[in-house]
Amino acid sequence: MAKAGLLDHKIATTHWGYANKFKADFPLVDLQENQFVTHSRSESTNQSGNIFCAAGGSAFYDLGLLLIERYCGREISTQVAKTQIIDSKRGSQNSYTNVTLHKPHSDHLIKQVQEYIEENFQHSLQVSSLAAMVNITPRTLNRRFQSCVAMRPIEYIQAVRIEQAKRLLELGDVSIKSLADQVGYDDISSFTRLFKRATELTPKEYQDKFSRLAI
User: Fold this and answer.
1) How far is CA 137 from CA 120, 128, 146, in A?
2) Burial annotation 150-174 (CB, 10 A radius, 16+ → b, else e)
3) Which pLDDT value is given to residue 154?
4) What is the crossing angle of helices 153-171 and 138-149, to 10°?
5) Which residues of the chain, if any, have pLDDT below 50?
6) Do the beta carbons of residue 67 and residue 48 sit within 8 Å?
7) Which residues contact 26 (CB under 8 A, 6 or more apart)?
8) Looking at residue 45, what is its pLDDT?
9) Distances (CA, A) of 189 to 34, 173, 193, 195
10) Using one digit for the tens of pLDDT, what is the confidence trace for 182-192?
């Protein structure tokens, strides 16, 4: 649909793993990459002209529920969700993203820094020290990192720590109190705020949703 121009100047979504490429290929589309489902009215006033997008995989369940609600009402949509055991309040794709996929580039220096961060995230990491490690200035590191990964180094450090926290919570054998320390944060309240901003869930909510012990 995007190649055909049907999504130009309309909102759309896609799987989070393809969001950056989609933005580069189709800059005229208002991509809402955090959303499971989007719907955008065409220029026609006819309701049948609406365009719907789902982020892929199980997001098509969300789209099905949206269509049922639109044409049959919220009560029936809720009944279908319950009878088919579909989570109808999943929020956004943020809690499903995986930072380890953010490496589709050929800058070996930046990859070296990424790998160092991923191996040492539990320690104190400074952008100036990372820049010195690869013999460039912090400003150059920030610029090249942003170009390659679409994040600044400090944002990548935070993202890697959040990703590790998610994995520990998924194992289900970590207390919330000790979690911040294990991923490099001294202040549990600051860590909790960062975690919720990244996933739209508190650590406890994430653990309840994804822990293998909750299954």
Assistant:
1) 21, 8, 14
2) ebebeebbbbbbbbbbbebbbeeeb
3) 95
4) 60
5) 43-48, 215
6) no
7) 2, 3, 7, 8
8) 39
9) 24, 20, 6, 10
10) 999 988 899 99
